[in-house]
Amino acid sequence: MAGLELVSDAGFRADGRRPEELRKVRARLGVLARADGSAYLEQGNTKVLAAVYGPHEVRGSRSRAPPDRALLSCRCSSAPFAGGGERRRRPAQGGGDRRSAERALLLRGVLEGAVLGQLYPRSQIDVHVQVLQADGGELAASVSAAGLALLDAGVALRGAVVAGAAGLAEPPAGPPLALSDLSAAEEAAGGPRLVVAAVGGAGQLALCQLSARLHQERLRPVLDAATAACRRLQAVLDGVVRARLRQDAAMEQ
């Protein structure tokens, strides 16, 4: 990435953040009445909605049902008005485009490592995620929103699921600088981007996706920035979950 464009001489990014700062995060649980669990997550101008249905009986042929664990189904899409780089062409047979299909595959891999599927044998858990507005970090936001929705549904997890992203700015003078939680404008600069997902703490990574080759010496600061983003986001989302638990407890009294 062109560091001269992304970070000022005073150390600020175009949106006023320091290199390690996250965009403003807002989240809510239980936003969809008909889902077993749901969550809405804003990270900057990126907005994502996630819904969980199940555990329920496996739809279709019973032969699809694993005898010792739950069948996890993930589906990702972007709203037609999402903007950014998320403009879509609807396939003739329905479903999502290639980017959405890739996101769903990565999301499923993360959640299969997080959900205690052995507690729900011969059942199915459906996770649907939709990007409502795209402004960078859609994959990370989708993973974090899905983790919140699973918590809202009461699905047993090995730990909280969050994801963070980082990139690398290369100033004309000075060493490369890692940037946490890239916006769409920063992603468009074309430098390497790293997305990581953590289960139960940043030390347990369930996903590590790098968009381009990166020398080992430069990978370390980017990885540190992405895992630090996970920790900061987890602290924010923990507060959201605790607030929801207090609200539920008050309603039961």
Give the CATH architecture: 2-Layer Sandwich
**Can you count the beta strands?**
9
The total count of helices amounts to 5
The CATH class turns out to be Alpha Beta
The rounded Rg comes to 19 Å
| Count of spatially separate domains | 1
Q: Let me know the largest β-sheet.
A: 5 strands, mixed
**What low-confidence regions span 5 or more consecutive residues with pLDDT below 50?**
86-96
CATH superfamily: GHMP Kinase, N-terminal domain
Q: State the strand order across the main sheet.
A: 1-2-3-5-4
* Percent helix: 25-40%
Instruction: Determine the CATH topology.
Output: Ribosomal Protein S5, domain 2
Structural class: alpha+beta
Mean pLDDT: 89
| SSE arrangement, N to C | HEEEEHEHEEHEEH
User: Based on CA inertia axes, which overall geometry fits?
Assistant: globular
- Give the distance, in angstroms, between the N- and C-terminal Cα atoms: 54 Å
- DSSP strand (E) fraction? 25-35%
